Amino acid sequence: MLASLMVMTCAALGVEGAGSWLCERPVPSMLREWRVEDGGNGHRYSVVVTPDGISWSRAAYAAELLGGHLVTLESPEENAFVFSMIVGLDEAWTINVLDDGRRFQHGPWIGLRQDLEAREPAGGWGWLNGGTLTHALWSPHEPNDRQHAEGEENRAHYFGWGDIRTHLWNDMPETPGGTGGEPGLRITSFVVEYPPKG
Ligand SMILES: [Ca+2]
Ligand SMILES: [Ca+2]
């Protein structure tokens, strides 16, 4: 159902340039509702996979094209629901191996970003919809605002280490693996949140 929604969106908008990647390849995805009767908010969620990698801003733009927004995880329960959608989805994760052999799991972008004027590394984080970050689920030692050649870490995504994918988050530059950045470092997916039906 959602796959056809995406195809329609691309065709209807005649997306070129910035959005053309959406139309160039099939997009594995699923659409799930966090049902009110299950304690949820009635919103629907999908995972969009972009095998060549995608910047946070392009992901946010694409989420709007699809009729939603980058996911805003405003409770631990909502975060757990979304994580249950992505944890087993291999295409949504990439593995980054450092020179010293340590391995990290890089999962989907989420709609969490940092005010550029804020104090580093933990200040000024907030949701795209203006919601405040009332419960931060950072991975241990994150956010660390690790300096990359392509910039500071001011956007957030799901993260893990070794072979473990977790429900916890890491801060990351807007364009991972950008010019001068770490070769091969990519985020290859994002989660879209849609309003309730009707
Ligand atoms: Ca930062
Ligand atoms: Ca980080």
The hetero compounds bound to this protein are: calcium ion
The CATH topology corresponds to Mannose-Binding Protein A, Chain A
CATH architecture: Roll
Mind describing the biggest β-sheet?
A: 5 strands, antiparallel
Number of strands: 9
Question: Can you tell me about this structure?
Answer:
The chain has 198 residues and is of the alpha+beta class. It has a single domain (2-194), classed as Mannose-Binding Protein A, subunit A (Mannose-Binding Protein A, Chain A). The protein has helices at residues 2-13, 21-24, 56-65, 76-86; strands spanning 31-33, 44-49, 69-70, 94-97, 103-114, 125-127, 155-161, 164-172, 189-194. Strands 4, 5, 6, 7 and 8 form a five-stranded antiparallel sheet that branches. The radius of gyration is 16 Å and the shape is globular. The chain binds calcium ion (CA) (2 copies). One calcium ion (CA) binds at residues 114, 120-121, 145, 152-154, 171.
Short key terms for the protein model shown above:
198 residues, alpha+beta, Mannose-Binding Protein A, Chain A, disordered N terminus, 4 helices, four-stranded antiparallel beta sheet, globular, binds calcium ion
